[in-house]
Amino acid sequence: MTVLRGIRSPEDLRALPADQLPQLAEEIRAELVEKVTRTGGHLGPNLGVVELTIALHRVFRSPHDVLVFDTGHQAYVHKMLTGRLEGFEHLRQEGHLSGYPSRTESEHDVVENSHASTALSWADGIAKGFEQTGELGRRHVVGIIGDGALTGGMAWEAINNIAAAPDRPVVLVVNDNGRSYAPTIGGLADHLATLRTAHSYERVLDWGKSVLGSTPVVGSPIYEALHGVKKGLKDVLAPQGMFEDLGLKYIGPVDGHDCVALEHALTRARNYSGPVIVHVITEKGRGYRPAELDDAERFHAVGVIDVETGLPLKVSATTWTNVFSDELVAQGRLRPDVVAVTAAMMGPTGLDRFCEQYPGRTFDVGIAEQHAATSAAGMAFTGLHPVVAVYATFINRAFDQVLMDCALHRAGVTFVLDRAGVTGDDGASHNGMWDMSILQVVPGLRIAAPRDASSLREELREALDVDDAPTVLRFPKGAVGPDIPSVERVGGVDVLRRDEGAGVLLVSVGSFAPMCLEVADRLAQQGIAVTVVDPRWVAPVPSALVDLARGQALVVSVEDNSRTGGIGSSIAAALRDADVDVPFRDFGIERRFLHHGTRAAVLAELGLTAQDVSRAVVETVARLDHSAAGVREPSASEAERSGDAG
Ligand SMILES: Cc1ncc(C[n+]2csc(CCOP(=O)(O)OP(=O)(O)O)c2C)c(N)n1
Fold it and tell me: Most CB contacts within 10 A, which of 51, 109, 404, 580?
């Protein structure tokens, strides 16, 4: 039996002799590489925290002690050590192991939120709670945060509070690999780098090891002597660390791949009676040759890749991101006022190409969506047109800044929301299903949802022409399909299909256009006339849409946003306001958090498929026909029996 297979719980790990830990670490790395290259997932971050996670579980007693992983994308090793090794066969697949911590999976998982920079606030709150219940001191609280996540404002709000209570112990572990996706930027990153490099006295232990020919046993006189020397040198050489200035005990930097040093540092932190930061230096992607040699950013999160080469196995089709990326570069050439802003997601949002061409006009602000929005408002004030590219789910963070700093000040800022709608594999917190609900309340803000590559390019250009209000462009994850031509444009609304006569007006939002056209085919087979429209700019509701709705038998909208506050609900309100008395049905996402699974599986579960939508529309039309003819409405069971439209 391998060492790893013998570990069913953290107790097993704690019982393991220390000399077996390097072997365990090697086996975990092999397992990560073998499984994650097959399923896709976060490879680089997890390869970097193997020894750190082992040490955390040996020093702290989860779940009695609470470990909070910031973002949670680096919790695979934690999952392996807490009885979920087998789950990696089907990582991130529906009904199987989630790619993030999950309370339903394990009592060892506490925080599921995959939005960065929250762990220290969680740790602060849990420590305060334990203090109230009298458990603090007996139960330890540990927040593990990356140097990337440490660039987020929330982390500093938490540190400010944690430092204010010198008698309330909280252990903050900074997992410093120098990278978010790309190298972490900013003054904080520079400061961490200074702490890292100025601590050459760390080598005292290595020197000791080489002289002795083996690692000194923790706590042995020789170990303590070496530490004494190290501490003496540190006091002389180390720059005053910002953390200590803030009132936090600083331990480190610690070699994050040395189990002995890690256990020693974490034990000291555990025994400390106040808030303490343990600064751990790790290497993202460690132990996997392609990640070590190649561009580390590519291995932050991977799809299915060839284990030997690290190259994707599927030939990648053109994505929505690629199209945006190209068009922004083209616009950058024509428009010197266009600047780009990313919150530590340069590559994933496609801004990398703009940055190559216009490095002086591209700003990576760190994981700081709030700052990105307000800083963009500031740039707009000076006459620039900032394009802030973020994943749709992360715009949640910057709602107040979009509202108060951008909209109230009529700032011409374009927000590009990638990965909008159901994203699937990454689970509840990664779906981009709230953006239109929260942004529709912002006065003056306009939202475009392109249906294909051409409309994405066109709508981006239109957005860049708006200089007195924020604009939003939202599109989904993945490959973009072929262009979908319109038959005409009416008041800015594209008509994609128009059957003769009154029938159903089907309003397609963004990338649902192909599905809506399929619904139209199915309805036509049932003898129902359909007009399919793409409003292009979906919010505020175009008046042409209201005009198109007049005289129809039924209006239907389909969107991949929450139905609550979505485009459907705005269309319903616009129809009411204009006294257009047409029955209306909106299809969108129920107001609940979604389980992880493929996008197709999640959409099917939500009933957002051509088959489900057409069936529901046929039933509604049948009901309306009956009531129009004075016939009683069919019962639910009759409706159920009325069958499939297609
Ligand atoms: C609010 C928010 N913005 C962006 C992201 C996307 N994101 C996921 S991991 C990551 C980098 C995190 O870097 P770090 O904290 O240093 O962890 P590492 O992956 O280097 O271990 C980013 C930007 C996020 N999860 N949350």
Answer: 51
